[in-house]
Amino acid sequence: MTHDVKSTAKLSLDGKEFDLPVYSPSVGPDVVDISKLYAQADVFTYDPGFTSTAACDSAITFIDGAKGELLYRGYPIDQLAEKSHFLEVCYLLLYGELPDAAKLTDFVQRVTRHTMLHDQMGHFFRGFRRDAHPMAIVCGVVGALSSFYHDSTDINDPEQREIASIRLIAKIPTITAWAYKYSIGQPFVYPQNDLDYASNFLNMCFAVPAEPYVVDPILSRAMDRIFTLHADHEQNASTSTVRLAGSSGANPFACIAAGVACLWGPAHGGANEAALSMLREIGTVDRIPEYIARAKDKSDPFRLMGFGHRVYKNFDPRAKVMKESADEVLALLGVENNPTLQVAKELERIALNDPYFIEKKLYPNVDFYSGIILDAMGFPTSMFTPIFALARTVGWIAQWKEMISDPTQKIGRPRQLYTGETFRDYVDVENR
Ligand code: CMC
């Protein structure tokens, strides 16, 4: 994409001056374009962890970390969580605008018609060990979609890109629910297309052939809200992974599988599982000070899981909605005195008043309360990250599509600050 040059930054190096164009985004900090720097000055920039690097143009999601603001296509997350629903949010992320009623109906219908998996995929699931982590299964099965749906892997054909996108959004709940069913030894439940997206997912997870199962609308609404809150988050680790994989021309199913793999780590999507395990380990309110002390101790690797964020230096706006949802769901289920929720609330209160957390601007993130809701709904901790992956699939796809349709896109290829040996001659084994 071409940009208007707002001003010029100057770099002085070894007695020479280099002009670097500065561009303004629609909102957020300006960026200094260093893309020609190596050619002009024979130097690289150095930014491990990409803390100061904008790697692409994007018009999908905006985060103001200082304010604690998250916008999807300009709309604030709390308004979307309250007034919209997940499939409408999917449309918004994919196509840039809220749909009118006819477009929404058409989109919902298109997604709904693709919820079934190729029948042979059932055999594919059965190849996994019963005790496999559902995240391992989701990662494997999403990657395997490219071996089942050959007619939507040509990334140069916009129609195939569109079909692959719809297929991924439609099938990921089925894949995730089946990963769960397989891990507990229950038969797979087929998608039921008269149910909405979240209810269908709950039904595939919790229904059994032996008795009727009716999805509670309040639980379904809470599930839908969890999906909405996780749908996209600009250039985080897994999204950047999807973009990097996609930049080589890999097919969409392979790229999304790469995103699932990256999401699994405890510093990213795996934090919801880790946060609930931590809250349970703390167990009672009187043990909180011990864990706060451990989190502050530099010689102890322990961190408060569900706390802190690379971008948010204020409340994660998703955590606020999640906390309200936790109160609602637990009240509905009659477990508002849930000891884990009590520990979470007290831990939050203590940490937010502790100078260490205040100074480092560490606030609860989206994962702090989501595990409590999912646990109350009946999901085991191993399902938390797969549910995050389900919800984030639309964000990954929207970002991947945006990248593929950008004519200036090229393969991602970072450089390095090499610290290894310099040139040396090979020595035969008998002389070493
Ligand atoms: N508990 C205790 N100390 C912390 C924590 C924490 N949760 N998070 C950061 N710190 C400290 C850290 O030790 C460092 O201290 P110092 O400056 O003295 O070395 C300082 O705060 C800055 O931390 P950082 O690791 O340099 O910051 P980062 O931007 O690289 O890390 C993070 C962000 C999310 C990986 C980190 O805050 C963390 O590990 N949090 C716990 C895991 C978690 O909840 N992850 C979910 C993130 S939200 C969902 C998602 O996006 O996937």
Chain oligomer state: single chain
Strand arrangement, major sheet: 1-2-3
Number of strands: 6
Low-confidence stretches: none
Sequence-ordered SSE layout with sheet pairings:
Blueprint: E1 7-13, E2 16-23, E3 31-32, H1 37-41, E4 61-64, E5 69-72, E6 75-76, H2 77-83, H3 86-95, H4 101-112, H5 121-126, H6 134-148, H7 158-183, H8 197-206, H9 217-230, H10 237-247, H11 252-263, H12 271-282, H13 288-296, H14 317-332, H15 339-352, H16 355-359, H17 367-377, H18 384-404
Antiparallel strand pairs: 1-2, 2-3, 4-5, 5-6
This protein binds carboxymethyl coenzyme *A (CMC).
Characterise the protein shown here.
By secondary structure, the chain is mostly helical. It contains 18 helices and 6 strands. Helix 8 crosses helix 9 and helix 9 crosses helix 18. The chain is globular. Bound molecules: carboxymethyl coenzyme *A.
Primary descriptors:
binds carboxymethyl coenzyme *A; mainly alpha; 432 residues; three-stranded antiparallel β-sheet; 18 helices
How do you describe this structure in short?
With 432 residues, the protein is mainly alpha-helical. It contains 18 helices and six strands.
